[in-house]
Design a protein that fits this description.
alpha/beta; five-stranded parallel sheet; globular
Length: 249
């Protein structure tokens, strides 16, 4: 149950364990929905620590504090249900006060991010208020954990997001942060090149988003015009004002 046909992060985690023999994988799911399928996939498996921040109560209705895993996996599922309207400061606290100490004790060999952006403040589906910079800070914390415990092995899988502009800009900020961390190790020249590249990418994204919105509005306008032309005439006759304009019972 969910919005995805394939659970890329769950498949990746199983592949890493089966093919490469990894025994400690951290999955971080920061988007607006609880990842019930990911949780279910590893609910009794102590090799995967699943951490989720999500709007609650909200679809799909799972992800309460009492859902902590079962059997050998008990304690390896960590849910942080949040009320609608939460922004950067709340997510910062969840990552600093809950995720970081748990991940530090777990010492992951690989970190996978379910990187959905439907908790962006521009997103029309949820009601969270995370900014572009907020997403970058979350990615930065995970980058630091990856460098400390698993040789920088950090993989982000793009997931949900229903504001084209919001998702595009937040993704750019996340990628910039990860690339800049790499650039700092290789020298300032590379960092300057990445800054220029990011600037060009943002400009192109804005242009693409504007064109997409224009096309969508044009198509919606054309559909509305077609429907108006095809619609039949009024089916209700005029009625006196004293009956509220409603047809007689």
């Amino acid at each position: 149950m969910g919005f995805c046909l394939f659970n890329n992060v769950a498949v990746a985690a199983h592949h890493a364990m089966d093919r490469y023999g990894l025994k400690r994988i951290l999955v971080v799911d920061w988007d607006v929905h609880h990842g019930n399928a990911t949780q279910h996939s590893f609910y009794d498996d102590p090799r995967v620590l699943y951490f989720s921040t999500h709007q609650y109560p909200f679809y799909p209705g799972t992800g309460g504090l009492d859902e902590i895993g079962s059997g050998e996996g008990r304690g390896y599922t960590v849910n942080v249900p949040l009320p609608g309207g939460c922004g950067d400061a709340i997510y910062d606290s969840a990552f600093d006060q809950v995720l970081t100490p748990v991940a530090t004790e777990f010492k992951p060999e690989l970190i996978l991010i379910s990187a959905g952006f439907d908790n962006h403040h521009l997103d029309p589906l949820g009601s969270m208020k995370v900014t572009d910079e907020g997403f970058a800070r979350m990615a930065g914390r995970l980058k630091s954990l990856a460098e400390e415990f698993c040789g920088g092995r950090l993989v982000a899988t793009l997931e949900g997001g229903y504001s084209i502009k919001g998702q595009a800009r937040a993704v750019v900020e996340v990628v910039k942060l990860v690339l800049k961390a790499e650039a700092q190790r290789q020298g300032n020249a590379l960092e300057a090149r990445l800054d220029r590249l990011a600037g060009r990418l943002e400009h192109r994204l804005d242009a693409v988003v504007d064109k997409l919105e224009e096309r969508l509005l044009a198509e919606l306008g054309a559909d509305s015009s077609d429907e108006a032309e095809a619609a039949p005439g009024p089916v209700l006759e005029d009625h006196d004002e004293d009956d509220g304009g409603l047809p007689p019972a």
